[in-house]
UniProtKB/TrEMBL annotation:
This is SAWADEE domain-containing protein. The lineage of its organism: Eukaryota, Viridiplantae, Streptophyta, Embryophyta, Tracheophyta. It holds the Pfam family SAWADEE. Residues 26-167 form the SAWADEE domain. PANTHER family: SAWADEE PROTEIN (PTHR36384:SF1). GO terms for molecular function: chromatin binding. InterPro entries: SAWADEE_dom. It comes from Eutrema salsugineum.
Length: 227
């Protein structure tokens, strides 16, 4: 999760990352932590075959390491895949009109501990108020958004939120290439062995080479026998 100011930076350690996969056009990603099921802005990198998830704004000891052979079945891999998506972005006051009943959002919920955590919710009602302006002429939204929570401490309950509590989901659903290659490796490990398709071509060549060598040897030995 990022706000206006908190653009996340990706830190590369050593040569772990493949630079050709680091493309600025790929969306920033957020990750739903198995720890508390809340969404966090993250960066990902590879360490050996494992995927390391680094939480933006948290020290390295909070990094989570996922080995590719840690999944029991393809459902678990799918479930893990669904923990990643393009980072939701802080809703702006002037975007109020784009939010209505049924809009899926990611929002902070009232917390007893004072922690700011983000969970998925759906807008069930917007109690609109006439927008005002600040001294600089910027639009100010004072509307009240009623949210039904899909996750988090208020799951299946409705609470109220203001524009500042809400992040809008991104339509960009391209998956980060590092996550994609990790999932591919995890699926490969699960199903065991290398891709058959990759070997077939090489096996064909090997067969040709073997048979060519055999023929050559036969001819040579025949010639020798006759000599
Ligand atoms: Zn509004």
């Amino acid at each position: 999760m990022t706000d206006e100011s908190g653009s996340s930076s990706t830190i590369f350690v050593g040569d772990f990352s493949d630079d050709h996969l680091t493309n600025k056009n790929w969306p920033e990603i957020e990750f739903r932590s198995p720890e508390d099921e809340a969404w966090y802005g993250v960066s990902v990198w590879e360490m050996c075959d494992s995927l390391v998830v680094s939480f933006n704004g948290f020290p390295g000891e909070y990094d989570e390491v996922y080995p590719p052979d840690d999944f029991k079945n393809s459902d678990e891999i799918k479930e893990f895949e669904e923990r990643f998506r393009a980072t939701s972005v802080q809703m702006q006051d002037h975007e109020c009109s784009t939010v209505s009943e049924g809009t899926k959002v990611c929002a902070t919920c009232p917390s007893v501990t004072g922690e700011v955590k983000f969970y998925d919710a759906i807008v069930v009602k917007v109690e609109r108020e006439k927008h005002g302006r600040d001294e600089e002429g910027n639009e100010l939204c004072g509307c009240n958004f009623r949210l039904y929570w899909n996750q988090g401490p208020f799951v299946n309950q409705v609470t109220s939120a203001k524009v500042g509590d809400i992040c809008l989901k991104q339509e960009d659903n391209r998956m980060n290439p590092k996550v994609v290659s990790f999932l591919k490796e995890a699926r490969r490990k699960l199903h065991g062995g290398a891709h058959q398709g990759d070997e077939t071509e090489w096996q064909k060549i090997l067969k040709k080479v073997t048979s060519a060598m055999r023929n050559h040897n036969l001819i040579s030995s025949d010639t020798e026998n006759h000599g």
